[in-house]
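Input for the complex:
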Amino acid sequence: MKYRPSLPEQNDNVSHEHPLREFFVLLAGLCVIGAIIYVILGLFIDAAVDHISPETEQRWFKKTSINAAIAQMIDEDKKAESFESELFDSLKACANIDYPINLWRVESNAINAVALPGGDIIVFSGLLDKLKSENGLAFVLGHELGHFKHRDHLKGLGRGIVLTVISSALTGSDSSLTALVSPVSMLGQANYSQSRESAADIFALEILNCHYGHVGGATEFFESILNEHKDVWELAHYFSSHPEVEKRIENMSHESNTRGFVDAKTITLTK
Amino acid sequence: MTELIIFAALISLGFFVGQYLEKRHYASIQMREKQLINLVTTTSKTPVGDVGEISHCTLVSGNAVISIDYFKRIVAGLRAIFGGTVRSYETLIDRSRREAILRLKESCPEAAQIINLRIETSSVFKGKKNDVGSVEVLAYGTAVYIK
Amino acid sequence: MIITNTEEIPGKTITTCLGVVSGSTVRAKHAGRDIMAGLKNIVGGELKGYTELLSEARDQAMDRLQAQAQQLGANAIVNVRFSTSSVAAGASEIYIYGTAVIVE
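Predicted:
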């Protein structure tokens, strides 16, 4: 037996396809599958939420969600307090909502308000400081009531859960993959909630018109934000769940015109 | 947003630098394989042909731990969802094995033959949640020296 | 191509030794199969998906081993050894190596 030294010319143990090609094909496939599952489950969630009565919702979420939210949102030295307002009761009547909804005032610099499952609305003191007219506040409350009316808070929660489950099921234990999937899924989520926000804006307009007989002061909140953030980072609004502020103002004035809502003088907010 | 930027930076760094380093490693492997081609290596328990009078034998080994780049790890993760051949790991395995065998040969350039070659693979580094991205290959055999 | 895991091939004479050749592959099953296997783990028994995965991987690695040996002009591979390891969760890695030879 003799030895003949030899080396194979071609390496059969590796594929010679370009790695980028595989990456993009797989990524596109993943996005398509994820989107299909998300849309289907999202519709299921929407249908299911419509069958949950406000009483059931209150039974499920009362206490737990408000406590968790407050614990997460405020610092230790700041406080949260529940308050009642005649304005809010009247707005609720206009919105045709007959189950109890609690208002919370939370000390925070955030210029925002949140609707929580279980029937709670949190208004941050930063928002109250910014608003000058009662109408402006009424619009914000009407907007949150719109979320309750459309059950957006529950749908948003349900979709959030679905999204988390899908992304963790698809990416499994691979933590680096989750980093890839999460921005993509965030975009989908933001797109969905933008349409919900617009619907809530229009609902708030209707409530304003019902309560005051006009929609003056509706855009006050947005205009104050606009003045504040003139130089806001351009890219940010693609990722924001709230549609571009200018677009929302435009949208609302268009809607007021078609419905024949009129603008009128606002009432100064008494704090 | 920041997460996305960090991710994009890591993946492109992994892709460009990883490709470059892999090409360089393959070039070095091919060159060294040609240099060491005349050192007889076999998986048989007996030497190839008539070697003459054997002076001594000794156990020799060579090992290499190689890791894949971030880009390939992401592609492998995607591939695990769809199934099929995980191409990104192929070069990792191929490179580490050839490197280990080369180191085995380089450790005994004076030997006439290396017989009973065996190769073992293991994953040395398991990150969080079994996120494996590197393998250790150990090649071992018996070097036969002649007088 | 004659493939054996013995030193010699009974009834044949090895004339030339061509060196060590190898074939390797890493394969994975799709996520659905992984989930089913996870469920099957509760009751035990054969994980058909993974049995299939490993035999597919062996076949592929064997094909590559033969392709390498053919490039060297061999007509047999002796002393073939299999080695398996896990490089990634849910993926199987198979490595086959042996000595490429020419027999008469």
